[in-house]
Amino acid sequence: MQPTVEDVARAAGVSRQTVSNVLNAPERVRPETRERVEAAIAQLGYRPNRVAQSLRASSSRMIGYRIEPVHPFAVGSIHDRLLHALADAGRAEDHHLLLYTADDLDGEIAGALALHRAGAVDGFVLYGLHAGDPRPPALLHHGIPFAAFGRTGHDEGHPWVDVDNAAGTAAATRHLVEVGHRRIAFAGYPRGGDVGERRAEGWRATLEACGLPPGPDLRGEDSLATGARLAAELLDDPEPPTAVVAATDTLAAGLLRGARDRGARLAVVGFDDTPTAAALDLSSVRQPIEAVGHAMVRALLNPAPPDGPPAASLLPPELIVRGSSCPP
Amino acid sequence: MQPTVEDVARAAGVSRQTVSNVLNAPERVRPETRERVEAAIAQLGYRPNRVAQSLRASSSRMIGYRIEPVHPFAVGSIHDRLLHALADAGRAEDHHLLLYTADDLDGEIAGALALHRAGAVDGFVLYGLHAGDPRPPALLHHGIPFAAFGRTGHDEGHPWVDVDNAAGTAAATRHLVEVGHRRIAFAGYPRGGDVGERRAEGWRATLEACGLPPGPDLRGEDSLATGARLAAELLDDPEPPTAVVAATDTLAAGLLRGARDRGARLAVVGFDDTPTAAALDLSSVRQPIEAVGHAMVRALLNPAPPDGPPAASLLPPELIVRGSSCPP
DNA sequence: TTGTACGCGTTATCAC
DNA sequence: GTGATAACGCGTACAA
What we know:
Two copies of one chain form a homodimer. By secondary structure, chain A is α/β, with parallel strands linked by helices. Chain A contains 13 helices and twelve strands. The model of chain A has no long low-confidence stretch (mean pLDDT 93). At the A-B interface, helix 4, helix 5, strand 2 and helix 12 of A face helix 4, helix 5, strand 2 and helix 12 of B. Strand 2 (96-100) of chain A pairs antiparallel with strand 2 of chain B. Chains A, B: Keywords: DNA-binding, Transcription, Transcription regulation. Chains A, B: Residues 3-57 form the HTH lacI-type domain.
């Protein structure tokens, strides 16, 4: 059994509450008494019981997070980076991450509701928001605090953090133009997803701003095979592009492979700067995931005043230049 | 504020304890009373407060886990699979995963001690045990329950789960022999690590059992670049091997690339069956990580009787055959 | 400055 | 079968 305040009090020859005061209001205790108590604490290895503290404060100091199953085709993911960043961000404010699983978004909502009702968590961090996402309205309706990564398009009611996707592909496109490319294509997700469209938009707008005609705008599912197929498609053109901006590192890796299979040169820039990008010497747009995690935890634990708007930040990504984006 | 037992009791016109009995010992309550209480519970959306339950039971129903920073060079990892498996395994026994961070193994031990002293977790799951690992003796010394993935060589005192690494490379080697290869090399971690040596041992023993001479046994750090370099080294041989057993998918991917760069054919089998393997059509040895996670949680939550040995299981991996291990 | 009393929400024990 | 009482460990208003 762990020692309690009572044990410490007995060992130090003071009352239970004096020990509590030493911990929570040290200035109220005479220095010599404090030292005696602190010695007893150290000697017994006493730590306040978090569960009792939680019950007393009706705050669990836990942040809930649903962990998704691993996506079997994505060659690299930022998910593990985010998880570490969240756990690390909580440390400074003495909060911990509580993981739970669910089969889908409705299960995630049901699980969040149950955990919150049971007092197991103070709030949640939501990953991968998208247009039409059912989670924000559901949690808002039940009055459950949360912070989100991504946006739905109706994000006024809760704190959120997002990365400026368009700025990322814009930087990639600008970089390719600067090293001399003039025909620059785009390879992305199927049309409709908001993240994908924003990445396409950054590419398109930058070409326009540079006075260059947009190259082909190809789409497909996020896999290596698709990337390779798109590369073949691009190179079949009588006047093929010399560079491609890809919406993910997975597609970018596929494009590199497709081009190499044809013995052709093709400059490629990926997105997410996964370990795969580093391994393949692939230039890539890096999301500031550590900052995202810290910003979400901060927004969740230090909510805005009731009359002000919730915290919201749009963070800039950073282009990591490697060998795959060389001049034509 | 969430409803409490008291609220339910008032709504159902019974005492607080009758409500508790309905939840924890239903057979003691007259059916009609029970129904009335259950209706009140449903109507109020009552859920027992986990924190109060924890305090009462002195069990937090939490499992602690230290999440490591992402290794920047490994192209695929089984870590995210394990995390999901652990969270999922806890669900069945109404336990949740509590994540924390630490800078190194000593920090992990200190954090575990603090969390356990504070009553925040009931026990821990340890990842990546190796010979000389300081964590098992430290936790045993403090009487902190834990289950481990991997072995140190002195594993009698605590529950552990491991994957039979030698059986994995043995299956890979046997498969390559069966499809017709006779000169089969090995590419692995630098000598010394126990996991790496077991994987090498499975390869060596199988060749011996088949009456074949062992091919070159090459080692290097776990990166794509190393794999490519080792491929070049192998193919420089006047009588080069036609196949390689690799200790990781990352090395295997590098070997494939190295061979392709030389325009040579080289059959390769990797280890871990990461998404990278699927993407590259790479045969690979798959660890049963989901089973590992479930076995660890089971062992942790249902400890062996004090007089019996702790639970221990050595799980078999499975060879996933794809295109990279075709006949010579 | 120190000690006393109470409540956070739950459940086990024990009378009735 | 049901209801009062106590206890888990802590923090805090209040009194001394």
